[in-house]
Amino acid sequence: SCVSETAVIAPAQVVEKPQDVVCVDDHNHASAPMTRAPAPEYVPETPHHSDWQRPSFHFEGKGAAGGHSATRVASAPATRPQPVE
To answer: Residue 22 in contact with residue 33, Cβ under 8 Å?
Structure first.
């Protein structure tokens, strides 16, 4: 059995594009209208539950860092730079 289908072809519609308006001033540079691109839809990340806890840390020290908390004296005294001749 042979079945033939008839396709209905609709005439193409002509869509007129709006003309871009360019302002012409007495400037020495080009100008063009701004275009806007659609932004993708924002999808926030799903929150996740975590049972992580910071491991305990036992600190043994003076609690400060730097020369004002040094426990020993420097091995050499401060020196002056050599004069430039």
So the answer is: yes
Alpha-carbon distance values, 36 to 39, 45, 58 (Å): 9, 26, 57
Predicted model pTM: 0.18
| Each residue's pLDDT tens digit, 19-77 | 666 665 666 778 888 888 888 999 998 888 888 888 888 877 666 666 566 667 667 77
Q: Mind giving me the DSSP string for 2-20?
A: ----PPPPPPPPP-PPPPP
Q: What is the pLDDT of residues 57-70, one digit of tens each?
A: 887 766 666 656 66
For the chain, what percentages of helix, strand and coil (3-state, to nearest 5) are there? 5, 0, 95
* CA geometry: angle 72, 77, 82, nearest 5 deg: 150
Distance (Å, rounded) from C-alpha 69 to C-alpha 59? 15
